[in-house]
Amino acid sequence: MEYMILYIAVFIFGITIGSFLNVCIFRIPDKNDIVSERSHCLSCGNVLKWYELIPVVSFVLQRGKCRHCGVRISWQYPLIELANGVFYVWIVVLHGFAIPSLLYCLCASALLIISIIDWRTYEIPPGCNLFIGILGIFRILIDPARWLEYVLGFFVVSGLFLLIHWITKGRGIGGGDIKLMAAAGLLLGWQGALLAMVIGAVAGSVIHIALMKLCRKDRVLAFGPYLSLGIMISMLYGTLIIDWYIGFYK
User: Fold this and answer.
1) Which of 58, 130, 131, 227 makes a 20 to 30 Å CA pair with 111?
2) Is the pLDDT of residue 249 over 70?
3) Which sequence spans correspond to the domains of the chain?
4) So what's the pLDDT on residue 248?
5) What residues contact 206, with CB distance under 8 A and at least 6 apart?
6) How far, in Å, CA of 148 to CA of 189, rounded?
7) Alpha-carbon distance 25 to 118, whole Å?
């Protein structure tokens, strides 16, 4: 029962942060202020009251519509909030109530922002990559014995991506993807970064080809969401997957 209460608290914290993620997703591409500007309806511009900003609950009580103009509110709001809350609980259940879990939770939030913005604009916000990189630095500080593993993680995938970028003159991989994997490698270590890259590449190939066939999706690939998926899986189950793979050679 004690742990259940703590998990509920983590979930509430997660969906609250998720509300801020929606602000970032809508405002960062337009370079709008994400801190001081009051939350408002994107249709009528009315500044929202505190009771209109309760994560998930406000959306349900208002039946998905603005109380002032009646325009439907995007389903993105509750879905991002719920996803962030679920990710936070998922991470804590697997890794416990520890500092690495906090770092992974914050990284998961940044990955949600990256995934949605890159999917829509084909650009990864530099601030999100920087944020993940800072988390990686904290990772080294709390686990200094493995510092070399994290430093190698910074270079192993991003170096490969940089080489592809040079060879293809920027057509094969974007600068944002390079920086994302450098930052994530600093947090995951070189093995986790490689695993994230493989998962992201496979997922991107399969899913994007399917979208091109079924939904006439453009040939241009937004790689950020797929890399984010790989990073997320690596954070959650990286050790288990790597140990399972190495087991084949013992």
Assistant:
1) 58
2) yes
3) 1-97, 129-250
4) 77
5) none
6) 8
7) 10
CB atoms within 10 A of CB 75: 10
If phi > 0 it is left, if psi is from -120 to 50 it is alpha, else beta; for residue 158 that is alpha
What is the length of the chain? Answer: 250
- With beta carbons less than 8 A apart as the criterion, state whether 142 and 100 touch: yes
pTM above threshold 0.85: yes
pLDDT digits (tens, 9 = 90+) for 145-156: 999 999 999 999
What distance in Å separates the CA atoms of residue 167 and residue 79, rounded to the nearest whole number? 39
DSSP structure class, residue 46? P
Q: End-to-end alpha-carbon separation of the chain, Å?
A: 41
Task: Looking at the chain, list the stretches that DSSP marks H as alpha helix, in order from N- to C-terminal side.
Answer: 2-27, 57-61, 76-95, 99-121, 126-142, 147-167, 175-215, 224-247
Residue-wise pLDDT for 93-140, tens only, equals 999 999 999 999 999 999 999 999 999 999 999 999 999 999 999 999
Tell me what the mean pLDDT of segment 53-74 comes to: 88
User: Residue 12 CA to chain centroid, in angstroms?
Assistant: 18
Alpha carbon distance 31, 165 (integer Å)? 26
